[in-house]
Amino acid sequence: MIAKLLKKTVLFLALGLIILTSCQEQNTADRAKNQRAQIEEMEQHLFEIREQTLDLVLADSMILLYKKYAIEYPNDSASVDYLFKSAEVEMGINKNQDCLNTLTLIQNSYPDNEIIPTVLHFKAFVYDDKFQEFDKARACLDELINNYPDDRLIENAIGYRNMIGKDPQELFRKADSTQAVAQ
Length: 183
Hints:
mainly alpha
C-alpha cells in the first residue's frame, strides 16, 4: 500500500516538475540543468522500485524524460547517454522494437560517438535474444568487428558472433569438451 502510494507520489511529482519547468521561461542552460536534475531524481526512484517490481508507468515516464531531453538538447553530451538509458529501460519493459528504434536513432544521430560499438553489441543482443533474428544480430556484430577492430568489446563480439543461433546444448557440449582438453 505504501509502495503504491510512494510510486504515485513520485509520478505526480515528476509530472508536476515537468509542467512547472515547461511553463517557466528560463535560459537554455538553466532548463537543461533542471531537466538533468529531474532525470536523476526519477532514475533514483525507478532503480529503488526496480528492486521490488518494475513500475511500467514510472518506466514509461523515465523514457519520455530521457527522450525529451535528447530532443531539446541534441548537442549536449548527456543526450546520447540518456537515449542509451532509454533503450535499456525499453528492453527492460519488453518494448524491444522501441529499444531497437532508439539504438538506431543513436547510430544515426551520433555516428562518431564512442558509444556506437556498445550500441551495435546491444542491437545484436536484442535481435538475437528477443527476436531470434540471427542474421541481423550477426550483421550488427560484423559491423562492430569491421569498423571498430580496436574496441574493448571486440573479443566479446567475435565470441558472441560464433555462438549466435546455435543450440544451447551444442554450446554446453563444446564448452565441456574444451574444458576436458584444458585439464
